[in-house]
Amino acid sequence: ASPPLKKKDTYKVGFAQTESNNPWRLAQTASMQEEAKKRGWQLVYTDAASSAAKQVADVNSMIAQGVDLIFLAPREEKPLIPAIKAAKNAGIPVILLDRSVDPSLAKAGDDYVTFIGSNFIEEGQRIGEWLVANGKGKTKIIELEGTTGSSPANDRKKGFDDVIAKHSDFKIVASQTGDFARDKGRQVAETLLQAHPDANVIYAHNDEMALGAISAIEAAGKVPGKDILVLSIDGGKEAVQAVVDGKIAAVVECNPRFGPKAYDTAVAYAAGEKIAPNIINPDQFYDSSNAAKLLSSAY
Amino acid sequence: MDTDNLLSMTGIDKRFAGIPALSAAAFTVARGEVHALIGQNGAGKSTLIKVLTGYHKRDTGDVTFDGKPFEVSSPQQAQANGISTIYQEINLVPYRSLTENICLGREKRRFGLLDWASMHREAEGLLQRFNIRVDVRRPLMEFNTATQQMVAIARAIGFSAKLVIMDEPTSSLDEREVGVLFNVIRQLKQEGVSVVFVSHKLDELYAVCDRVTIMRDGKTVKTARMDKIEKIDLVSSMLGRSIEKAEGHATAFTARDEKNIGKILLSADNLAVGQIVQDVSFNIRSGEIAGFAGLLGAGRTETARLVFGIDRLKAGAMTYGGKTFEPRRPSDAIAAGLGFCTEDRKSEGIVPDMSVAENMMLALMPKLAKSGVIDEKAQREIVEHFIRKLGIKCSGPDQKVRELSGGNQQKVLLGRWLAMNPRLLILDEPTRGIDVGAKGEIQSLIKSLADQGLAVLMISSELEEVIEGADRVFVLRDGISVAEFDRAAATEDALMGAMAHGNAPVVEEAQI
Amino acid sequence: MTDTSQTAHTGKRFDPFDFLARYGTLIALVLLILFNLAFTRNFATIQTLNVNLTQVCTIVIVAVGMTLVIATGGIDLSVGSLMAISGALAPMIFLGKIIPIDNVYLAVAAAMVVSIAVAGLFGLFNGWLISAFRIQPIVATLVLFIAGRGIAQVMTNGNLQTFRVPQFQFIGLGRVLGIPVQVILMALIVLAAAWMLKRTVFGRQIIAIGGNERAAELSGIAVAKVKLLVYAISGLCAGLAGLVVIAINSSSDANLVGLGMELDAIAAVAVGGTLLSGGKATIIGTLIGAMTIQLVRYTLLANGVPDAAALVVKAAIIILAVWIQQQGRAHA
Amino acid sequence: MTRTRFLSLLGSYGVVVALLLLILFGWLRYDYFLGFFNITSVLRYNSMFALVALGMCFVIMTGGIDLSVGSTAALGSVVAALFSPQGTWIGLGAGVGAGLCVGLVNAMLVTRLRIMPFIATLATMLAASGTALLLADNQSVSVSYDSGFTTIGQENFLGFPIPAWIALAAYIAGWVVLNFTSTGRGVLAVGGNEDATRMMGLPVGRIKFLVYLASGGLAGLAGVILASQFGAGQPIEGVGWELFAIAAVVVGGTLLTGGVGSVGATLAGVLLLGILFNVLNFENGKGWISLSAYWQSVIRGLFLLIVVILQAKLSSRGNAAARDH
Ligand SMILES: Nc1ncnc2c1ncn2[C@@H]1O[C@H](COP(=O)(O)OP(=O)(O)OP(=O)(O)O)[C@@H](O)[C@H]1O
Ligand SMILES: Nc1ncnc2c1ncn2[C@@H]1O[C@H](COP(=O)(O)OP(=O)(O)OP(=O)(O)O)[C@@H](O)[C@H]1O
Ligand SMILES: O[C@@H]1[C@@H](O)[C@H](O)OC[C@H]1O
Ligand SMILES: [Mg+2]
Ligand SMILES: [Mg+2]
Which residues have CB under 6 Å of ligand 1? Predict the structure, then answer.
């Protein structure tokens, strides 16, 4: 079983963030920090700057500092295993946020307490299924992938592509990385729209690239939402606004506000409650039918 | 002896970008002889040597060495085959110790690892042959040019070579050191080693060489026994025309008219700078040629650097044109009308990848420019004028300066400063590495410039140059100006006496 | 004196290697265009030209500054971070986060001038480290490479700034006579720099410093001043490029603006034929180098080459382009 | 000892002084900083950078640079992971072999095609990273946990992490090569004046060839440790390692222009920069700078600035030229 957490009024906890290079990550960090402040807990925050190896070192330095519990947003499934094992050996419980680790190498409830987050594969699936149902003849897809090699990119691709593969009338005409970034997403979209003038759907693995793609579509003299459907994942305010404006057709939420639930889970764990091995965030799905109504609650 | 040739090169051709540097050159060296190789700047001496040692690849021609056809593609192979070379530009590694500079390539080992103790001993031993006693563990860059040159020579003779090539080894040595080098050359000769000796100082050739080969325009025009050829014939073969015998003069400096000399322009009192210069005082009048004499390391260059604003004064004061003079950087000195032709043209003079024109205009350019824009036409005229006036051998103003021979590079630098039309020109070894023909031209140029009112501070290790050229001579020794002679008093004996003052070793233990 | 009528050039024969050295990259560019005409769909369109030109702008603008820096024998790793700084600062000014300015035009003008100037000042700081302390350029500019982005992130707390300010975004989205404004900016900068390098004293001094710094100093060139200026210019170019990027995207993200730009710019300079050792430089070459790299990127994307394979191809093309020139140079 | 001599010594050992000061600072300010757990985990993690920096040090001493080390390590980790089921030694050999291959390409590009090192290794940096992604199918590759391969990265020997021992051995070997072999002296000579070294008859090409090969091999070895320590070959790891290594080498007093350098000071440079990261993490625990992780970059930049300015000041005053034996 994973190491116990003593019941105390206040804790010193660690949050090992994987990177801080996009709005989503910043929102997640902010949420974790705000919640710590609210509760008066001491938070040791580290930023692995996109390196799984550094993230392990960061976790080790938290262990050395003697934190009570570690929140870990693992950069990758496999390389973070040693960090989880080290924490376990040191008697420090770990709660995974947002991305999980390889289940064959570490088990929830045993090596770590639980995983709280979304299911990236499912996100891809949901968007794919929406397209299949609501595409209305828009069938030629350009896919803007996340950072090559990162797990959200791989999973969001897998979930989506699997759905599309089952429908022969849909076709992914191009799939290239836009690095989860607006500028890169825009440039790649510009190029792919040139090379595939018949494309009429752009599926982006996150909001930033989707917003970049909208600029690209407009620069090419086309109308997003009319000539080309844009699909996205994350569901930040700017993207939901774009849904309201008709520029994005649909977006799956992937909410970064982990703070409250993460700390609640820690408290429940200390109290000896039984924690489910997987706590999946109930993520919204925005399209023209609900975006205006839900805009104010988007993160 | 002539039948038993160690080296024979025939029909050697070498072109650079289509332009011939060597055409059908031929060269033979007998076993155990000291063979002089001479010619004007750009005649092809260094190229011939570099072709032999595999630094350049020859276009055509045959080479036989030690009885076998000789084909090497790198200096390394040449060395392994018994040819050891001291190239014209000192080619050593400044940051590394003297020991490494001497022993790299034939290190001593113990248990497979370098044996530093015995390498240091070897380096010390080799340098002692040149009367140099220094800490061989210190990096080369801490030593003056002369010591560096000796290190290069020590390195070359340290290889048990059959042929040692020396491309202008004496250009940065003073007479005493030249004497030491000659003893070493004679020793080599006794050991049966052949030596190829390149120099522009013809007198030296008579002192050590057995035979001479003369090059002109990439061809070897004549080979003769040293004792069978007169100096005048050497010169006319080099230049390719007959010349008059200069009456009683070793240089082209001729008597000057005292009335050309004006008021004191620069005066320096009790200067001290850096490690070497302790107390130097001198003055120069406009229209005067002032000479600095001294042994290597006496502090002449350091003093000049100070005047030009490169280094900072530690003590003392200068006035220039009657006013206090404290140049903080070269541009201050230049703005005041000074020019400085440095002794180390490779590292402080030329910009190798720039053209002859660009190099020559480097200092003048801002003055010719109109609101920062270069005046190409005006520049061109000036450059062409100086190419003609100085007889620079180049394919045109646009040729890269790196492609010029050493002597011609020197002339380009001289042009750089003459073009500035300065009031005071500092010339540090102005004729080093310059052939006799050009040397004479440069010397008479200096004189005529002085006649027009230019003040010249001339540093030279060639005593004749100072004696015949300078109106007054200041002698420096160990960073102190020890004597001043006017033209009449500046005899060789007087200067030598003041310079040497006893028999101190050539280079003292570095005082760090 | 010596006779100077020697070495008459035996006519100007065609020298294939010299030709390669001079036009190698241009040839590569032409070949790429031909390849695309044959194999890439929808290539021969104005919009393709548009896409490529607008995408290459920022690299070219930065690479021009980089060319000057490299010509002095230096290098500037900080350009990407400086882009982030100016990109972070400008919206803070025109969105009135620092001091509210009522007039939009005034606010935009202030934002542009101040943020470019700040980038220039940071460039000056690089130059100061390099000339006053004689710190190696790679290391000196590594300082701001690391800290510069941090400064931009601290300024914005890492947050994305989004905006719709057409007056400002004109530099990224506007057109004059149908030509995108950023392309015009790029062209002006390229021409000005090329002219400066060839025709002015300053240009000549830059090359001289790269060719032999000591000789330059002894010829009265104010080496420290020239270096300060060159790094400042590089900073200014980066600052402008940062503004163009955020203008196109209607948003500024301190974490990402200019990320990796230093390597793109250096590659463009090298592929364009400027020696990294200094003492030689060609601005037009840099333009062609940047376009070549851009077109390679376009070609690979348009033809669906996966990212991983594209990296390998890009590597091969950089080597090829540089090698061709080297061949030319070695034989010339 | 004269004043200049003292300054010169301080110039060469300044980095050691800085390192000791930083450790002292950490010890005084943070609990557990010098705890056994922290020491060993810092050593375990930084051993990869130490290996990469050692290779970089040799390359830089010849006046070159190797930007490919990070991606080469990533590639090495992927290849090692792929071969790890075959056994520890095979995995190790494969990873190092992959690194040597990249090193070989660099060496060929630099010495045969005469491509500037910066560009040659910039290109192989891209190519190695692409190759790693291709081999790994864009994902991390799990190592075999059964073959014992993870011993290399995760186990201890005499109480200290095996990676640290490997790095130590590599540094000792590097020190011997640099100071007691002709190739080592050749490395410094080439960096000091390549043309002169060629004219002196030293095998310049071979020396440069060897340093790039060695740098590739060491990066591959770092990749093996990466795979073994974290249980996965990671194609997207290694970003920025080259700059870390360059900074460490320079902080150690090695001149980027080549010709002067020290293996020991490079190690001190690695530890200095590596421990700085650790210190920043501990500082975060104090809650002082943790509000914004971005301050960390600013602080790291400032730190580098201070160290290089001190270096520059010391070496110009003390004329810290090469005197290392
Ligand atoms: N690398 C090169 N590229 C082009 N031309 C060259 C090159 N090296 C030498 N030359 C040319 O070859 C000719 C011979 O030069 P070399 O250096 O052999 O002359 P030298 O006789 O040694 O003269 P000096 O007495 O001045 O040293 C010169 O005209 C020179 O410009
Ligand atoms: N012990 C030393 N350590 C470091 N540098 C030295 C030392 N001795 C001489 N030098 C350098 O060597 C150069 C020549 O020194 P100096 O000015 O004393 O000689 P000089 O009289 O001009 O003779 P020459 O220039 O002909 O060799 C100077 O640049 C000086 O800095
Ligand atoms: O879209 C998000 C991406 O930007 C971040 O890097 O990882 C988590 C994802 O949900
Ligand atoms: Mg010569
Ligand atoms: Mg001198």
Answer: B 16, 21, 39, 41-47, 88, 393, 403-407, 433, 435
